[in-house]
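User: what does the whole thing look like in 3D?
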Amino acid sequence: MAFRESPLGELKVPLTWTAAVAVLVAGVIAVALLVSDRRETLQEEAYGAARKTVDTVAAPVSGAIAAPVRWTGQGLSWISVYLFTASENRKLRRELDEMRSWRDTAIALKEQNDRYQALLGLKLNPPIPIVAARVVADSRGPFANARIADTGRSRGVNVGNPVMSERGLVGRVVGVTNSASRVLLLTDIASRTPVMIDRTNARAILTGDGGPNPKLEYLRRDDSVKAGDLVVTSGDGGVLPRGLPVGVAVKDSLGNWRVALAADNASIDFVQIIKFVDFSQLADIKALSEAEMPPVTTKDPQATVLRPNAAVQAPQALNSPKVTAIVAPLAPMPRPLPKPVSRRPVTRPAASPLTPVQAVAPPPPPVAATVAAPQLISPATPQFNGRR
Amino acid sequence: MSLSAARPLNPWRWLALPALICIGVTMLFAAPFRVFGLQLPEPVFAMVPTFAWAVIRPSVLAPFGVLLLGLFLDSFWGGPMGLWGLSLLAAYATVLFMRNMMSGQSRSMMWAWFAGSTGIAMLAGFLFTMLDSLAIPSLVGVLWQFLATVLLFSFADYLVDQFEDADVRFR
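Assistant: Here's the predicted 3D structure for the full assembly of 559 residues, as structure tokens:
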């Protein structure tokens, strides 16, 4: 059928404006997704189903795509090893001479340490299990630095587990599926890692910015660090164990302290995931929040009332809805006071608005506040929202 | 007038196929690979179809294709969901509303337009990341990714050449 013969042939659709509307709708969807994203949290729920699906699919596909690249890299590595064998041999000999003296020192220190532990009866933390994984994808842009490893929950990996190379800390697991894990690198702009300077124990927060050298922030004193100082994890917050090597401190051209990461000198295709669990973080928050509060049981107030006529008046007061809403029924009744002797003439209104029951009802005693405290005060108490 | 001069484009050929190629190449360049301590660059391959689709013709499907490509980048690279979708849409919208100025211009001038649209996408990504993470991304990293992406203009030019004359109503 010819174009002019079509019933829609003469219809002129303002396609540019239609496309603009489509751009607007797509933009609104993107803004909504961006605002609702919570990838920087350590919560399992924040890692959505879409990301899990992409990771599950991307891990084997990227592994297959990366295989030729990996073989090429191994070939080039073989060539470079072949070319630099002599210089590498000299360098290794020097390192071996240094290591021999360190080995003797380490053996002596280990024996001494074992002896002290035996004398003190010291119980050390059990060794932390480690899982090796192959990296199948590595993003290194300015806005996201993450890796996908081909090991997941099926081998015991959990969100928050630290990830190491053979040289130092790489990052931590932020998303996990059965067969893949997403590792947030230390250089990612959302990464915040509590660290300390090994020489001075000065605490700092290692903050990624998408560049190769993350910043050392919140250092209390500038003289607590100098170039070349070893930076390790501090263990503060319980997310990472203490003492994992991170890198060495360097100063950038603007005078800010940064860290040259130790993991930069290691191979990037294999990592070790440390199945670290901080025992102080084992409380099941969900179970605690869902548990029912135990009932508040108090003594019957009537049993403690000494006044004989209160036994008659109190039930009436409790049955009045106005009074029970204000006065806690569990409070003990106060003792009756003696009538005051007044020399001034007492003036009374012609018709009192108070009913006899309300008139004799005692004022709310202070004990009532302690009974109602869990319900009245708890909304105003500060709540930890899980984000630091 | 016959339909041959104004035939509609096949969405599979000009939208789906370039998007799939773009996804595949992105995954290839994400391979953990380092030679002599140097890693592969990480250009934003999605800028190629984003620029070309806007130049070829206005379309209702193309913005959603751009959005899907952006969401793929966010999911695969591990960034905030919606960041690249929004950044690429900003570049797409700019090119779409300036395509009349681009028609008939030389290859080098089109390269400048491509660099400009890439710059808009990177600037949008920089600002949105700053707002989302409350931190300033590394300018050096942004600059390297911008330079690596600008080098992809040849692919965008090829895609435009393939489909620019397919529908004379949008020349």
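In plain terms: The helical segments of chain B are 11-29, 47-56, 61-77, 83-97, 99-102, 107-133, 139-150, 153-163. The radius of gyration of chain B is 16 Å.
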